[in-house]
Amino acid sequence: MKRLLAIAALWSGAAGAADLEDWRPALEKTSDGTPVVVLNLTGCRVREAEPRAVPLTASAPGGCEALNRASLPVRERAFRRLRLPAGRYVFRVFNADVAWAAGFEMRGATDASLPKATGQGIAPGTGKDFLIDLKPGRYLYRCPLSPTPEYPLLVEG
After folding, report:
1. Could you report the per-residue pLDDT of 73-89, keeping only the tens digit for each?
2. 108 - beta bridge partners?
């Protein structure tokens, strides 16, 4: 518990949730020209959405659930919102240092008709590509197996 309180204290200077920083990544391209968004799963979080270097580690998914429950109210104020124009993308998701197989999930935040992506079996030290045609709207993405919090994605028309 002391460790969880220490983590929360490190995040106490974060901006308010309404003031999310937008993140517009520099995009690689596949051989056919499809833009690639790279995400790294590490320590109960997605590194690009939570770039502040706070050590979050767990030896099993239940450990991440406990860390997230205790630290999320403070951490989420510093999330970066991924912002992209509508179109086709490859989300290249790496299991950077999660000790078990990870996964990826993307869905509409409030609109179930928006495109979805989901998959599992991203072994430690490996990655997997997810192809998705993003329509304008608000999305959430996460690793359901680590598990990570849900991070915001805004797709503009």
Report:
1. 888 888 999 999 999 99
2. 139
Q: Is 75 helix (H, G, I), strand (E, B) or coil?
A: helix
How far apart are alpha carbons 114 and 152 in whole angstroms?
14
Among 111, 102, 106, 47, which residue's Cα sits nearest to residue 56? Answer: 47
Is the pLDDT assigned to residue 12 strictly greater than 70? no
Beta bridge partners of 142: 105
C-alpha separations of 120 from 8, 23, 41, 107, 139 in Å: 30, 25, 13, 15, 19
Is residue 78 within 8 Å of residue 11, measured between CB atoms?
A: yes
Per-residue pLDDT tens for 53-77? 666 778 787 888 888 888 888 888 8
Q: Domain 2-156 falls in which CATH fold?
A: Immunoglobulin-like (2.60.40)
Q: Where are the domains of the chain?
A: 2-156
Nearest Cα neighbor of 21 from 152, 148, 147 is: 152
Residue 152: phi and psi, rounded to 5, are -85, 145
Burial-class residue 106 by CB neighbours within 10 Å (0-12, 13-18, 19+). buried
